[in-house]
Design brief:
Number of strands: 2
CATH topology of the largest domain: Serine Threonine Protein Phosphatase 5, Tetratricopeptide repeat
CATH superfamily of the largest domain: Tetratricopeptide repeat domain
Number of helices: 12
Helix content: 55-70%
CATH architecture of the largest domain: Alpha Horseshoe
Structural class: mainly alpha
Radius of gyration: 20 Å
Number of domains: 2
Shape: elongated
Order of helices and strands: HHEEHHHHHHHHHH
Strand content: under 5%
Largest sheet: 2 strands, antiparallel
């Protein structure tokens, strides 16, 4: 049985403060375009653009519609096709226009909050802007809609690595492998996670499984593991 459930996802994120379009600590102004004390005009402009792009959604354990701003955004996208909004977001992302991508995917979510595709794109774009907590909420919401998405499960696990949550990262990678035992990158990442968890036996097991599947772990990592624990014989 997969250990990742919506409840587990909520526990992973339970330590996170409520987040909205104003930033990670709620200290920045609520008005789009308002200046933030101590920041340069350029930084104020960048933050205002990001707040505007994220307008319409709230980020906690999951992504939810902001009752104050979502109706306005919904009116703005009325008559738009959901697939076009998602395609617009992907196009912006591929061009490294990450703020624009966040805006497109945000509008797609507001347009059709029960559809899956926009959440993955929104999570990717938020990661690109360093908004890890918000991106994790986006991936968690996507998994609540489609728990069989291997790609989003793996991205969810990658975020746990960025957050430094080693135990939950290992569990999330094992969830990926329960769905796809031949997921080479998940085996490789799991080997590294076991190493940092001081579990060299399982680290070597995952190194070998990675190599059996035609992949490889970073050469430097293999050296470090061998220096700490001799590679077991076949």
């Amino acid at each position: 049985m997969l250990i990742w459930t919506l409840a587990a996802g909520a526990l992973v994120l339970a330590g996170c403060d409520r987040r909205d379009v104003n930033g990670s600590d709620g200290a920045t102004p609520t008005t789009v375009g308002a200046k933030t004390s101590g920041l340069s005009p350029i930084e104020n402009y960048k933050q205002a653009r990001l707040r505007e792009a994220m307008r319409g959604l709230l980020y906690d354990n999951l992504v939810t519609l902001d009752p104050e701003t979502a109706p306005e955004v919904a009116r703005e996208v009325a008559g738009r096709d959901y697939r076009d909004l998602v395609a617009e977001g992907r196009s912006n992302y591929e061009q490294s226009l990450f703020v624009e991508a966040i805006g497109s995917f945000t509008r797609a979510v507001v347009h059709s909050p029960d559809e899956f595709a926009a959440y993955e794109g929104l999570g990717d774009a938020l990661v690109a802007k360093g908004r890890i907590e918000e991106s994790q909420a986006a991936f968690a919401t996507g998994l609540a809609i489609d728990g069989q998405s291997i790609a989003v499960r793996f991205k969810f696990a990658e975020n746990l690595q960025r957050k430094g949550d080693l135990g939950m990262q290992i569990a999330a990678l094992e969830d990926v492998l329960e769905l796809d035992p031949a997921h080479v990158e998940a085996h490789s990442r799991l080997a590294i996670a076991h190493y940092y968890n001081n579990d060299d036996a399982n680290a070597w097991r995952e190194v070998r499984q990675t190599e059996r599947l035609g992949g490889s772990v970073p050469p430097q990592f293999r050296i470090l593991l061998a220096q700490r624990t001799q590679e077991p014989g076949e």
